[in-house]
Amino acid sequence: METLSPLYAVVDLGSNSFHMLLTRQLADSVQVVDKVKRKVRLAAGLSEDNILSEQAMAKGLECLSFFAERLQDIPEKNIRIVATATLRLAKNRAEFIAKAEAALGHKVTLLSGIAEAEHIYLGVAHTSVSANKRLVLDIGGASTELIVGRGFTVKKAHSLNLGCVSYNQKYFSDGTLSSANFSRAISAAEHAIAPIKADFCDIGWQCVLGGSGTMQALAEMLIYQHKPSVLTLDFLYQVQMQLQNFDHINSIDLPGLSTERSPVIASGLAILIALFQQFSIKELTLSSGALREGLLYEMLPGNRTTNIRQRTISALSQRFHIDQQHAVSVKRQINIIYSQLKSTWNLPDGNALALLLASGDLHEIGLLLEYKYHQQHSAYILKHADLAGFNQSDRKFLVSLVLLYKGDINLAHIEQQSALDDETAKRLLIILRLAIKLCRRRKDDELPNYRLWLNKKVLNLSLPEVWLMQHTLIHDELKQENDHISRLGYSLHIDVDNNSST
């Protein structure tokens, strides 16, 4: 039985935090069973001579003793435990690793900087939807990894000895968030990045992704402001200016920024600004996975290189017993209507269409609970489910579509999403609603050929007269739809085609 499939565990002894990820395979997807995170800040225990202090080791080993409790029931072949930058640097790492292995009862693998970078890239490739050629950035506690690749293939990887914990000690040790401290930190990071810049730029990329704590914290600040979670250099400068208004690191209080991340946000931000400036990055989007996910997918049986979104949708469809044949019918009509209105409405391809089709797959996910409030149930499930391949903006847009695919339209749900501009979001909602209305009978062979065109703000839908006479309920509901989409600034006119019977 799928529910009795074995657990998989990945433990990451990072420079800032120790993480443990527990998962199992379920319905063609990866289900997260548990996550444990402890702020050990191992990098802060390194002396100038790269000797790890007894206090830092004790704190780390205490954390691992907690992790050991959870690992004891998991098959050994399903466990990966890795150490990263701080232990690469520590001269007394052998002592700590030996004690760590004794505490855990399992082998600890010390990853090289390149191996860490490659696993980070694969974690991104397995869990994120983006252009095929990508630059991946990861700012850790004591190192920063840069990887450029295509699909699941790493083209170039590098690990730099600069991280948010080590830079915090070096450039913000007095806790002062001054312009001078920021300038010194940014300049030092740019100096470290400059020698490898040309090799990466020669390969090139179409998009930039990152998922480390610094980037996640900054994205959460944008989400708090109801903005797309896309990082730009202007936003980074804005956060820098806000931080400089605080007298001390301990007094940082920015909306949307967690107190846990505050102590190292300035140093992480300085490194990220240097990366943006050196590589002329216009925008960075969050990845859904990184090192731990790269290690996990390496263990999982079978080929896991299929489209992550489709895998997520397929898993949800199975788990919630969605009528997949009906979903296919709805998506077919979405594509037909989309193609007929694309040029008139200047509709975008790519992610916008992919999200619209995903809503066709998932709009009935809440039916398993009950019919009466199934749209609210669908929205709740999509709001809280593990949607690998969908970022926060994508998720919010999906939620708004399933809430509004039929019935009254609350414009607030459109205005609260940030994946698309409001007008495009309204147009995609209209397409979804019409596609679902036309599929009301849930029989593909009963759908006629039809035309849909726009005259100013009037949508004209031409349907065969015979078909309309045979489907009076759908005809009536299409006429009622005019009242609903008027909330979106459009009207719907049903044009009876007397010359066609199919």
From TrEMBL:
Alphabetized GO MF terms: pyrophosphatase activity
Span of domain Ppx/GppA phosphatase N-terminal: 27-301
Pfam families: Ppx-GppA (PF02541), Ppx-GppA_III (PF21447)
Domain of life: Bacteria
Domain called Ppx/GppA phosphatase C-terminal: residue spans: 308-481
Keywords per UniProt: Hydrolase
Record-linked Gene3D superfamilies: 3.30.420.40, Exopolyphosphatase. Domain 2, Hypothetical protein af1432
Protein name stated in the entry: Uncharacterized protein
